[in-house]
Amino acid sequence: LITLATMMLPAQVTLIPQFILFWKLGWLDTFYPLWVPMWFGGTAFFIFLMRQFMMSLPRELDEAALIDGASRFRIYWNILMPLCKPVLATAAIIAFMAEWNRFIEPVIYLNSPMKFTLSVGVSFFKQNADSSSEILQHILMAAAVMMIAPTLVVFFSAQKYFVQGIAMTGIKG
Q: pTM of the prediction?
């Protein structure tokens, strides 16, 4: 219930308390506020996603492994974790996309233009172009390609796990 309640809380509500926390830790104008929260907690959505996927796995797999003499850890590590590769790949792709496309947090936590993320840098480049001069469209397009290239690499490298998830249900009639 608490997990679902945290999913209903907009992320913008926590920006000021997080800013104060990172200020007291001395993390402003560093990359720590951008990656530490994701590694230590992430979001409630991933907990919910993993729980729902684990609930959909057939209990017969656990029971068959217990009958064969496997320990709880062995069942988890050798049977359930390989079946969780598709949901882990999904969570990794969603987390990567969310972090890669983050805009408001780097603007708030980073002060140095040299530390801006690519999305913030492209936006500031476009805004800081002199209004009388023509924006260099070819530079903006090159930056857009640079922004989308890692996303495509991550998606295509994890695509095989989606296909495995369809084929690896585990139970056969």
A: 0.79
